[in-house]
Structure formats: structure tokens, C-alpha cells
Amino acid sequence: MERLSVNQITVKHWSFEETVRGLARHGIGWLGAWTGPVEEYGTRRAAALLRDHGVKVSSVCRAGFFTGRNPDGGGLDREANRRAVELTAAIGGDVLYLVSGGVRDDLDLPRSREAVAEGIAELVPYAASAGVRLAVEPLHPMMCAERSVTVTLGQSLDIVERFEPAHVGLAVDTYNVWWDPALHASLARAGDRIIGYQVCDWLVPQPHPTFGRGIPGEGAIDIPSITRAVGAAGYTGPIEVEIFNEGVWATDPDDVLATVVAGFGRHVLG
């Protein structure tokens, strides 16, 4: 339980304050925060609320979208990325997740992937000065066009390894990487470059490419084996349950947290 974190999106319909209070009520000591709810609540108030309830920040989502194609429209927003860095530091976090962005309008995947590395290089000095590490997260290949041109751990590591370990690392999410034939080899290669680990399950049948995530134990992923491999690579930090699912969101968040807590040992740690 001391490693369990719950991402804000898992209890989407709770406000930031409700989420922090709920986590504390269920004995969960870590939160994966999103910039939107924190900004809505107020960064200083959020930091105080977290301290008062003994809840720490495992990660903040998100920055990035370096390629010019993303679901929110527009291109690279440098100011938004800097604000995300500032917010992460202000609420006591030190890991900021990056979403690469989808393929450019010219459909040039190699060039789009190079744009990701260029965008990270530009952001690194600002993040480093704030004590924030940038976590490159590969998304599932079905997200390549719209959200992320980095879709495997290997591709993400090729980018991560260009930078100092103190500044840029790898984020592993079971939903995005479980299918990869090179998964375990890539995790071993990553070693201590892993700075974030998120878990959820792959529902069968898959209801939606974005909202098809299940509570661990509900689907097809052998999460404990991935957890062991991530641990063997050297990662000992918080394990964050992140679920996008309309059915989960429609459930009483207290019931969701109770289910996550009850199954964490068996379905995540194994």
C-alpha cells in the first residue's frame, strides 16, 4: 500500500479537493495529478491541501505535444509546457509526463519523432532549473496519428538516452506497452531511466481506443509480470493506477478506490 498511487483521472468526477481527501480516507499516500484540476483549485491551495493530508505527488500529467498534431488543436505551446513545469514543482512533484504529439500534417513520422527530441531539448533546461524530471511516455500504436508518434519503449528510449538521466526518463504504462514483443528486453535496457510506472488493464472486448482501460484484474494484461520486470530494472517508486473508462467514472469514486485497494496486492504486485 505504501507504493499505491491513484491518478486523478481515475476518479474524474471528483474535484481536486475531493480526490485528495478521498485518497487520504482510503489510506492512499500518492496522487497522480493533472494540471487542469490543480489550476482550477489553485496551485498554492493544492500544495497546502496535499501537505495537510499527507498525500505526495507521484507525477503530473501533462506537457509535450511537440509535433504540431494533437487532439486539442494547435501546435507546440511552449508557455503551457513551462507552466506545467512550474505547477509540478509548486505542488511538490518532480516527474512531469510528456505526450509526444501525433504525426505532422506532412505525414512524416521520422521527422515528427525528431521534433519530439528537439522539443524536449528545448524544455530540459527550464525543467532542470525547477528540479523537475521529464518522463517520456510511449502510447499505444493506435494513438500514433493523433497523440503520440512514440509508440514503443524502444523508440522512447532512443530519445531518453540523448539526455542526462537526472533530467529525462521513461514512463511505463501497462495499457500502452503490454503488447510489445520487445517489452522485457526494453525494460531491462531502460534500467534506472524508468521514473514513472502506471497500471491499468486491457478490457476484452476493447470498448474504445482511449476509454478502454480497466481496473487491474479485469482484463488481459499480466500486470504482475510487468511490475516484476519494472522492479528488476531498478524502479522502486510509486505505482500509479490510471484509468480512462466511462463505466468507472460513473461508479461511486469511493467504491472505485476500495476496489483498487483490495486488488492492488494480487493484481498489480502479484
UniProtKB/TrEMBL annotation:
<dbReference type="InterPro" id="IPR013022">
    <property type="entry name" value="Xyl_isomerase-like_TIM-brl"/>
</dbReference>
<keyword id="KW-0413">Isomerase</keyword>
<dbReference type="InterPro" id="IPR050312">
    <property type="entry name" value="IolE/XylAMocC-like"/>
</dbReference>
<dbReference type="GO" id="GO:0016853">
    <property type="term" value="F:isomerase activity"/>
</dbReference>
<protein>
    <submittedName>
        <fullName>Sugar phosphate isomerase/epimerase</fullName>
    </submittedName>
</protein>
<feature type="domain" description="Xylose isomerase-like TIM barrel">
    <location>
        <begin position="37"/>
        <end position="252"/>
    </location>
</feature>
<dbReference type="Pfam" id="PF01261">
    <property type="entry name" value="AP_endonuc_2"/>
</dbReference>
<dbReference type="InterPro" id="IPR036237">
    <property type="entry name" value="Xyl_isomerase-like_sf"/>
</dbReference>
